Amino acid sequence: MNKILERLYNGIFKENPTFVLMLGMCPTLAVTTSFVNAVGMGLSTTAVLMFSNLIISAMRNIIPDRVRIPAFIVIVASLVTVVQLLMQGYTPELYKSLGIYIPLIVVNCIILGRAESYASKNPALPSFFDGLGMGLGFTLSLSCIGIVRELIGGGTFLKGFLPAASFPNGIVIIPDGYRISIFVLAPGAFFVLALLSALQNHFKAPSATNTGNTSEIACGGNCAACFGEAKLENHITIDKDLEKKELEAKKKKEEALAKAKAAKENANAGEGK
Question: What is the pTM of this model?
């Protein structure tokens, strides 16, 4: 039970795929024009994550290591096809709204990342709940962005979710003349993501840029993927750390030799007596 709760907590908060790991940015920025679209994409991805993790974990000792990635893609693509057909049959409006981003779930790096890093190395039940936690974390993130974009850019809330006869435009909160329409366009997704990430940093919440690491290394020390001025600073910091560790190891070695020498001299002195 503790393992299951840990996987759920990690996926929703500690390792949130959007705000902490910064994965799946394509659907995050593209489909979050409204709360309904965000929840629809999040739950679709959650279903694929859960069952792909479950199947891959169950087959982890059968799939040859050299073809594991193609095998993962085939499993994920099969599940995405099922989800796509179900959405097309039961939620046609949402299916039309999400469009090409439903089949693109196949190559979502969150799904392949969890399959490779967790499901292929762990039992079926924890892998299933790992997928559930990651999916709920992804849904929560998309919902937050979707609510802000819909509210500020469209002035409405729950449009497309409430009965169309009574609420054709959802719950209207901001009048037409006071809406900032750029928030429902492509640049608005970047603005909202940046705003929410800034709030995370301000309140010291776990995020991609606020991991609580006290190291002087910028960007986590991943120099190979760094294209900024921090690259040289990282190398200098790493060199200093290595030099410090070498000096500490040398000092410990000298102390050990000194103790061994003193013990040997004491033993010889005892034998002489």
Answer: 0.72
